[in-house]
Amino acid sequence: MKIKASELPLQAGGQIYHLNLHPEEIATKIILVGDPGRVEDVSKHFDRIDVKRQNRELVTHTGTFNHTPVTVLSTGMGTDNIDIVLNELDALCNIDLKSMEIKEKHTSLTLVRVGTCGILQPEIPLHAVIAAEYGLGMDGLLHFYKHENLSDENMVKAFVQHARWNECLPYPYCVPASRSLLDHIAVDMYKGITATAPGFFGPQGRETRAPLHYPHLNNSIESFEYHGHKILNLEMETSAIYGLGALLKHQVLTCCLGIANRVTKEFSSNYHAAMDNLIDMVLDRLTRIDESRE
Q1: Contacts 24+ apart (CB under 8 A), 54-57
Q2: Which of 86, 108, 198, 250 has the fewest CB atoms within 10 Å of its CB?
Q3: Does residue 72 contact residue 21 with C-beta atoms inside 8 Å?
């Protein structure tokens, strides 16, 4: 199948449109961050940097760590940006951008999101690292794709009933992380369900001047439990990474640093040392994965 130019646009120089990258400019091990400024926080740990690219909020550095090729890329905020980033990363390795034909041999990327989040359980302290065993999407993105057997529909049904989910909201979906990445990278982290919201204020239960339609939604999210799994945190990207990652057959994991506890109402603005430690930990563990065993 030849993909039409309007469906996968390229720049005049042949780079993929939004990421501004050629296929040879990314590694198969990729760290995703939301904040463009955090790209340099990651790449400063590299042995060397071979590629630097930027287009809008999408910043990419590719180099080596532990003598292993690795890329760090900023996605910006939200699942809509993840839709662009995941599809374009997949195209860079699985579509021939000259012939616009899908390659016969599939390349699987290893994608680890490193970011910040709000904590939803009172016993979890600020600066704790939470690994998402599941990404619970309240954003609706995955429903624009055929995704049979990717979402844990029993968990979704239990959540919808528990939260008395309003039919006006996007129907949730829930996709697990890659088990091998959880086992290798998240061994000493808090593990549970990460909820992904389609916004920062109203969708996460924050009320300033605009009144909330569902002011008690966070309480329902916090109190949900399914077969021993609780929702530990809330952020804005993981469900889309997990959903599209599974759909496109890539390995995915999110590790987030908790900088606010929405239950105890605590917030930390001085989390940069803890984030730097998390970055170094994830880089070390990611680049030590034996790809032949993934």
Answers
A1: 54/20, 55/18, 55/19, 55/20, 56/18, 57/81
A2: 108
A3: no
184: part of which helix (H) or strand (E)?
Answer: helix 179-185
Residue 172 and residue 160: Cα distance in Å, rounded?
8
Per residue in 248-257, pLDDT (tens digit) is: 999 999 999 9
CATH tag, 23-293: 3.40.50.1580
How high does pLDDT run on average in the chain?
Answer: 96
Residue 131, both tokens: 């690994």
User: Which amino acid, one-letter code, is at 126?
Assistant: L
**CA angle, residues 57, 63, 67, in degrees to nearest 5:** 150
Structure tokens at 63: 């180099």
Contact 182, 124 (CB under 8 A): no
Residue 168 CB contacts under 8 Å (≥ 6 apart), including other chains? none
Separation between Cα atoms, residue 111 and residue 77, nearest integer Å: 17
Rounded to an integer, the average pLDDT of 83-96 is 98
DSSP 37-101: HHHHHHHTTSSEEEEEEEETTEEEEEEEETTEEEEEEE--SSHHHHHHHHHHHHHHHHEETTTTE
Residue by residue, DSSP assigns 229-287 as EEEEEEESSHHHHHHHHHHTT-EEEEEEEEEEETTTTEE-S--HHHHHHHHHHHHHHHH
